[in-house]
Amino acid sequence: MAHEHDHDADQGPGHGHSHGHGHGHGHGHGDTDIDWNEMAPLLENQAELFTPLYERALAWLGHKQTEPGLIVDAGSGPGVVSCLLADAFPGARVVAVDGTEPLLERARARAGRLGVADRFDTLAGELPGVLDDLDYPADLLWASRSLHHLGDQRAALAAFAARLAPGGTLALLEGGLSARFLPRDIGIGRPGLQARLDAVEEEWFAKMRADLPGAVAETEDWPALMTAVGLRPTGTRSFLLDLPAPTTDRARAYVAASLARRRDVIGEHLDATDRTTLDRLVDPEDRASVHRRPDVFLLAAHTVYTAVRTG
């Protein structure tokens, strides 16, 4: 499954966000199919770039769920946030869960490099059923943009809730705001390119959701859905990543990769002018490209919803 609505790298054509993680298939939806192995470097780079945002989110969670014994990262991808969870909660065992074994290999390697391998495990399989293979209930279950890759989101939330220990917290990262990289008028093509990309991506995302096995349309009122599966909502907060222009080389590389992915995934749904603009933006030899222009920035917001199992 995967992470990152906001359709980010993880989730869809791009949206460029956080992501970091979450997947576990290439669902086989035709042009909405996602090859998570192929996306591994982008997922890793994105999550590393968004680390300051994640660290603030995890610090907030630390006030809600103190000293968890078991933390589950449901839809971990390459494990960047899994390792941040291990760092934020030094007394916890962390289990990274994903449907894509090569991504879990990256997660294990990262845990080894960061010195947390002794309390870091992985579990391969499709969400939510694979959570039944956990040895014991979780005190904190983190699901970052993995839920929207599951056809029946309400049933998946119920499964997440069932794997929580009494007093355990579900932290759901979904939604937020689509990332912005460029001014409205960039001096080439028509102004407002990113807004038009967002509109096309929303259509892509809707098709991706509709093509999932067992897809059920659901109003995305996450606190209401958490309540419906027996949890008690405890808070909602959005976290900002703000890397102003002139931005870092790492952010610039991420923006370039994100735009290139959008061109590849949704380019055929854009008009000729916007396709040409995207081609120029990702061409390292073009002076108007994001590789060279001084006005590239990265601004994004991710929203985290929390709820506790009371019984």
**Quick check: average pLDDT?**
90
Q: Classify the beta-strand content into a percent band.
A: 15-25%
Q: What shape does the CA trace take?
A: globular
Unreliably modeled segments? 1-30
Number of strands: 8
Termini, distance in Å? 29 Å
- Number of helices in the DSSP assignment: 9
Helical content band: 25-40%
Main beta-sheet strand count, sense and barrel state:
8 strands, mixed
Which terms summarize this structure?
8 strands, globular, 311 residues, 9 helices, 8-stranded mixed β-sheet, alpha/beta, disordered N terminus, single chain
Structure, briefly:
The chain has helices at 36-49, 51-62, 80-88, 101-113, 153-162, 193-211, 222-228, 249-266, 272-281, and strands spanning 70-74, 93-98, 120-124, 138-144, 164-173, 177-180, 232-243, 298-308. The protein is an alpha/beta fold and 311 residues long.
Account of the 3D structure:
- With 311 residues, the chain is of the alpha/beta class.
- It has helices at 36-49, 51-62, 80-88, 101-113, 153-162, 193-211, 222-228, 249-266, 272-281; strands at 70-74, 93-98, 120-124, 138-144, 164-173, 177-180, 232-243, 298-308.
- It is 36% helix and 19% strand.
- Helix 1 runs antiparallel to helix 8, helix 2 (51-62) packs across helix 3 and helix 8 (249-266) runs antiparallel to helix 9 (272-281).
- It is built from 9 helices and 8 strands.
- Strands 1, 2, 3, 4, 5, 6, 7 and 8 form an 8-stranded mixed beta sheet that branches.
